Each structure stands twice: as structure tokens, then as C-alpha cells.
Amino acid sequence: MKKSKFLLPIIYFTIGAIVSGFLVAFLSTQATQKITEGDSFLYTGKLSQAIESYEKAQKLWPFLYRDSQLNQKIQQAKKAEERIKNASALIVFFKNGASEQEIQALEQEIKNITGVREVKYVSKEDAFKIYAEQNKDNPELVKLVSPNILPASLEIYLSDPSIKERVSQIAKMKSVVEEVVKSSSY
């Protein structure tokens, strides 16, 4: 009887240790797989999926919250994602004779395309203000330019970068468009 009193806790402890060992091995393996998956996503430029995989790895294996390399990967991916989100994918420059109606029609057509996040109209005056701000340290350059020689434009921001070429072709087909410039950051 005395043996069973001592034996039962030892058996429970041993079973608990074995189960814990398997659980630890399973969770660390799952976390490692998520990190590998995140690295694959990062390599192919799928930043959101990479961040998601890395964060899932941290939830599976909480010690990873202290892993400076993994935290650095997450932060760099988030910064890159933010830069891309804030960069225009395309800028459509209009010819001087473009009417307000023609510009608004193209703006609306582009806004209606699935995958376009935002379309921002930049008037000739706004373009001059941007130019003057960018060249504020060189007033001679600013004096050489007036709002009349700068074109009005549309800055197009995409939530789906795969539609960049399609949007570019739609804009190029319009007679009021002088040029379409594609951003290299997308």
C-alpha cells in the first residue's frame, strides 16, 4: 500500500514529463515551419504573408518574442510594406489642353478598377508647390519654373500591384494623357 502511494505520483510526473516533452517538440517544430514559410514569403515579396507567418511562429513558441533576428525581420517587412503602401504605383501626366471633364472621367474610370486603392489629382498649381518645396534650397531653379509649364497629373495607388500594367494601358489609350510613369517601388 505504501509503495502505491509513492508510485502513483511518480507515474503521473513521468507521464506529464513525456507529454510535455512531446508538446514542446511539436510546438517548436511548428514554429520553425512557420518561420521557414515566412522566409519563403519574404523572398517572393509577399510581405503581409511573411509577417503573418512570423507572428504565428511567435504565438506557437513564445520564446521567439525575444529572438532579435526574427523581430528584426518582422520590423523590416512591416517598414517595407508601409513604404510600398505609401508609394504611388503610377503617375499619369496630362497634356496641356486636357479639360477638367476629361481628367475627371479618367480619374473615375481608374477609381472603379478593383485593386486601385486611391487616385489623387495633382493640379498644375499643386505640382508647382511640390516642385518649389523639393527645390527650396535652390531658389534659382524655382524661379525658372512656373505652374503653367508643369502638367496636371493623377497619382495612382494600388492595393493589388498585379494590375499596374492594365491601369497603365487604360491611361495611355486616352488622348489627353501625355505620359504614364511607373514607380519602381511596386
Radius of gyration, whole Å: 28 Å
Percent of residues in beta strands?
5-15%
Kindly report how far apart the N and C termini lie. 75 Å
- Structural class, from helix and strand content? alpha+beta
What fold name stands as the CATH topology of the largest domain? Alpha-Beta Plaits
What helical percentage do the residues reach?
Answer: 55-70%
**Architecture of the largest domain, CATH level 2?**
2-Layer Sandwich
List the helices and strands and how they pair.
Blueprint: H1 2-43, H2 47-60, H3 68-86, E1 90-94, H4 100-111, E2 116-122, H5 124-134, H6 139-143, E3 153-158, H7 164-172, E4 177-182
Antiparallel strand pairs: 1-3, 1-4, 2-3
Helix pairs in contact: 1-2, 2-3
